[in-house]
Amino acid sequence: MYWLERHQLDNLVKKLTESYELFGPRRDEVSGEIIFDRLSHPQQLDLKAPIPYNPPKYILFPHYEEILKYRYDRQSKKVVLGRVSHLKPKALVGLRSCDLTGILCLDRFFLGQEFVDEVYLEHRKKLFLISNTCVRPFPQCFCVCTDSGPSAREGFDLDLTRVGDRYLVEIGSKKGQSLAEELGLKKAGEEAAELKKKVVDESVSSFDAFALENKAWISRATNRLTTGFIKPEVWEYIGNQCFECGACSFVCPTCSCFNVEDVNRLDGATDRLRTWDSCSFEGYTKMAGDHNPRKPVEDRRNKRFFCKLSYSQSKKYLRPGCVGCGRCARVCPGDIGLPNVVTYIRREITGE
Amino acid sequence: MSYHRGVCNFCGTGCGHLLQVEEGRVRGVYPLPGHPLSQGRLCVRGWHLHELLQTEERITTAFIRKNGELQQVSLAQALDYVTEKLKKIKGEEIAFLASPRASNEDNYLFGKLARAVMKSNNLSLASDAGQEASARVLLSGGSWPAATGSLARLKQADFILVAGGDLTKQNPIIASEIHRARRAGALVVTVSPRKTQMARLSQVHLRPAPGTFFLVFEGLTRILYEEKKIKADYLEKHTENFQAFFKKLDQVDLGEVVARTGLSREILTEVAQKFYQSKLTYAFYPTGVQSLGQRTMAALFNLMLLSGKLGQNEGGIIPVTGISNLLGSYDLGLSPAFLPGYLVASEEKNIQKLEELWQTPLSRKQGQSVSVCLTENESLRALVVVDHDEEIIRNVNRIKELELVVYFGAYHNNFASLAQVIIPRPSYAEAEGTFTNAERRVQLSRKKVDPPPEVRPLWKNLTELARALGHDWKYQSAEEIFSEIAKVVPQYSKLTYRQLESHLGIKWPCDEKHPQGTDYLQLPEAGSKFRFVLEENVRPQAQSIAEEKANFPFRLTVGRSNYFWHQNSLMKRTFIPKREYNALLLLYPKGFVEVSEEDALRLQLREKQPVRIVSESAEMTLAARISPDVLPGQLYIPYFIEEMIPEFLLRQAAELEKNEEFFLPVRLEKGG
Ligand code: SF4
Ligand code: SF4
Ligand code: SF4
Ligand code: SF4
User: How far apart are CA B289 and CA B175, in angstroms?
Assistant: First the structure.
């Protein structure tokens, strides 16, 4: 591990902007809220900011993206294919551990299965990732229940932990190593690991006091979901409250549903587009022949929570599909974010 | 790539969003946390706005029809052509159809072009019957003509009445606020014949027979009066005609209310009592297409007034505008009834005031709405239209006869194809302007991307036209127009772009007395009072009280839906909302009619079985969809998918859309 002094932070950021587009948490001037955004000035970076309202997912899995361009040539009767790729390398600075874990989940989905998603891979290859330990959780957080925070264990190039007014830097990759060396960071001594552990332990033990929004019962809920012991009335109750907006999927760092559309452009070419999608939509599971396996909305809701919490899913991702960021609770018009669902399930178990 | 603050442009909720812009194109959208109303939520439409903003199905150049074909021309040629034509047209020969989706600045100049340049008062929106009725009722009650309460304290409400429509579909984020209030302890009472999602989210659902809405509120008022649950002090101090209103209440027959609405006296009494006891009370109804009738709005207003619920606190009446800038359009006088600032258009002193501000003589001729012009005004020769985004066009044949139809729009659609001249408009993200949501919140939206090269803001083209027609308009920016609006519209008098820029909207009235805007309607000041809206002040209800005949035992109503509310051609340019729409169409390619489980059993109908709907004048065939959402004796057709709307409905669309209380007596026969 290394030490990054306060004044070296600027050097780090400056260095990164030489080869990367810089992304990180910034504060919106008018609303005062935190957004994970492209930073036009390095000074916009706010490492003390609470968890951003949006996960960094859009940077490697955009809301709307041309993944292929093709043109049918009438004369030769041939299809000319072209990839639309002009991706710039990007540095994501100040990732919260839950969001980094989210990226690792997306990796498993897009890269870790039978087929490798080339488009995603290209985004992914060009990223430089710097995570940032949460020395104290935010009200919506429950990563301690989903094993995804408050400190990152893997997947970063560099990991920062604030200790006093400087940062402990953990190296996660060769890229990270060379950047630390280039910046001339001071090697930390033996005590570093102990120091970091202390910060993280303190953070974990402060969840009870600070992470008040979501009283988690995740493991019991997981159990229930997997064994299917949840009464249909509970799902119906939840389903009635769903406005079918799709937000819970869109804001989730691990949701990877997408839709593919071919759009004919005015210049004669066709763009194949990939856009975000959500299992909350009726059309998402619609099959030919008028058969929709998850027609009633409560079934579609139930599907999402299965995806996030059941064992079978966890096996696929080697971890729960939920990383405990609490975002789906904030954006849900129906007030049925995952933490609330867990509460309903808990009530059912305890008969409250 | 970065995120820019903005305002969703679909419905009158006006949710705050962030548009993700990359290389001059909008690539994504995300809810803006911290927005005072939407607080980081969007509905399915708002989450897909970027798909619409990316479409290439845009109007990017001007066109003139020559020998029946639209031909591409330069912007200057198109404006010249229109100028020459307009020079030969008199005020009463032309009508102006404005867009409730356009900015205040564009709308203001559009209205000014009609009234000040063309001397025409034939100026209106297309789907606003409810909005006008609502403004009239509130004004005649001595209130201001829009939301009297503030949604900021909705979560502390103890009683919420939701009358008509389905807010979970029309204005989902306002419905979400109501849902949260309920979870925080409010009693939510929904009044609608159909079991909507809003009704499912309410503790009490009153289902009056179609056409009897007003009786519900008149009945509740009568019960309170009978039980002496009135705020005598409040009435004495703050209202002027309560004696006359009491006389009217003496005539309300509760027996008739119970018989016609089908609601029991017990439930009405229970609701009335809870309503009376509540401290922070809200009443919501949708405006625009499929609103309530004017008599119903008046009855609701009187109910609130009798119990002293107006002007006391943040509670109040919230007319919910279905389209983004519907309220702003009325604020700026895009109606034959009102000049900018809700000055009654027929009063001489108001016209003189506007003449002074605009420094030009105005016509005294009473204006007509565009739909009235098209059906009744035989001297009509020309029509100027902004972004008519409904696929359904009534009076097509009359429009085809006109000498001149000018269409200003961003997207090709059925209306554009009827035009002789088409002039492109920027999309919502390509121009700046202000929009006024249902809470009276005026919000500034900055330009985020450049429009295509030939495309300029509407106000610019209107300015050019006015200049060519001899009026020395000098507007150089939307901001300049806004500062003129502040001079003309009293409710906007202290608003400036500078102030709006550092706020997430400011609620009018924003004037001398309330320089920071106004949260909710206060009690009237000394010298003025609230008034009960008595029937004689109210235009007769536009509603068929047609007695059902034995031949036509069913009451057919229509409604709209989430994705394709009201024929919106915009949604068809998105992917996900369009797919959702197609999903329904795949299931019922010929459209469907919802029948209650009881009637289906009685008539032995199967799901998807073809049925014939027969009215006195026409018939159509659709598939039956057996639904728990309609009551026996009622039928429901979602009025949003063009393909599902056969001639049958089209012919009656004008009435069916007038308000939600309208129904058509029909009979249902098996077989296609
Ligand atoms: S969920 Fe955990 S990792 Fe994520 S921001 Fe909260 S504390 Fe940090
Ligand atoms: S399910 Fe909800 S809390 Fe869990 S990771 Fe997704 S958005 Fe965050
Ligand atoms: S965010 Fe809430 S309302 Fe929207 S789809 Fe998800 S569960 Fe339903
Ligand atoms: S509720 Fe209305 S304003 Fe808000 S996101 Fe939906 S359509 Fe847009």
Answer: 18
Instruction: Determine whether the shortest distance from the Cβ of B8 to ligand 4 is under 6 A.
Output: yes
Q: At what angle do helices B478-488 and B348-358 cross, to 10 degrees?
A: 140
- Do B33 and B77 reside in the same domain of the chain? no
Q: What SS3 state is found at A70?
A: strand
Provide the number of structural domains found in chain B: 4
- Domain boundaries along the sequence of chain A: 2-62+87-210, 218-263+278-350
Domain holding B281: CATH number?
3.40.228.10
Q: Considering only alpha carbons, which residue of chain B is nearest residue A276?
A: B576
Residues of A in contact with B579 (CB under 8 A): 259, 281, 283
Residue B208 lies in a domain: yes
**Cα B374 from Cα B369, distance rounded (Å):** 9
Concatenated DSSP letters for B420-479? SEEEE---GGGS-EEEE-TTSEEEEE---SPPPTT---HHHHHHHHHHHTT------SHH
Sheet holding B69-73, edge to edge: B69-73, B62-66, B421-424, B404-409, B382-386, B94-97, B123-124
Residue B30 belongs to domain spanning: 2-54
Amino acid in the structure at residue B564: F
Q: How far is the CA of B189 from the centre of ligand 4 (A)?
A: 23
Instruction: Quote the pLDDT of residue B543.
Output: 41
For chain A, the helix, strand and coil percentages under 3-state DSSP, each to the nearest 5? 40, 20, 40
pLDDT in tens, A67-83: 988 888 878 888 877 76
Q: State the pTM of this model.
A: 0.94
Beta carbons of B42 and A32 less than 8 Å apart? no
pLDDT digits (tens, 9 = 90+) for B263-280: 999 999 999 999 999 999
CATH of the domain at B120: 3.40.50.740
Measured in Å, residue B274 CA sits from the centre of ligand 4 at 31
Task: Report whether pLDDT(B500) > 50.
Answer: yes
Spatial neighbors of B379 by CB under 8 A, at least 6 apart, are B92, B93
Q: Burial code of A294-314, b = ≥16 C-beta within 10 A, e = fewer? A: beebbbbbbbbbbbbbbeebb
Nearest to B83 by CA among B640, B464, B437: B464
- Choosing among A27, A58, A63, which should be mutated to test the B contact, i.e. which has the most B CBs within 10 A? A63
